[in-house]
Structure formats: C-alpha cells, structure tokens
C-alpha cells in the first residue's frame, strides 16, 4: 500500500477507519526526516494492507502537529482504531517501523 498524505480534512476519517495506522509527522527541511522518508516508503510496501502508513507535513498542518503535541520530528504516532497507542521519536529503521504495526 502506498503512503498516504494527510491533512486536517482527511486525517480523522483515515486514521479512525484503519485498524492500525502509523503517521509520520515530518518537515521537508528536517535531516532525520529526509533519512526516514525512503525507509518509511519501503516499509509501507512490506506491510501492505496490515496497516495504513501516512505522513503529515508539520509546516503545512501545524494544527495537527499541535493537536498531537508533536514538538520534535520525525515523530511516528501509532493509532489503533483511531486512538493513539504509542509513538516513536527520531529516525528508526525499517524493521522497527514494521514492528510498530504489531499493536
């Protein structure tokens, strides 16, 4: 499954409709975010339909970042049935991303 790009209009519907969703809060100027991006995309291919993987650009979606208390990027928030169950800060490898879907 491809990585989705979320905004204020589609965030709640997308995350609540998924059994498990991993949402990467990032910015284009962030070095660790640039490193994580391709790894996140690759993990999405391996995960397939097991979970929804999505990205939120914090520069464009400041209200979403504030709503979830994202003060450091990259931050991956793990949602189960629309509720936050965990989060990961900073760069992580593909194996760790895949393991986050096991909630």
Spatial strand sequence of the major β-sheet = 1-3-2-4-5
The helix content, as a percent range, equals: 25-40%
**Number of H/I helices:** 4
Radius of gyration: 12 Å
User: N-to-C terminal Cα separation, in Å?
Assistant: 19 Å
Query: What best-fitting shape do the alpha-carbon axes yield?
Result: globular
State the order of secondary-structure elements, H for helix, E for strand: EHEHEHEEH
Oligomeric form of this entry? single chain
**What does the average pLDDT come to?**
95
Q: Detail the poorly predicted runs.
A: none
Please identify the structural class as seen in this structure. Answer: alpha/beta
The number of E-state strands comes to 5
What amount of the residues lies in strands? 25-35%
Characterize the main sheet. Answer: 5 strands, mixed
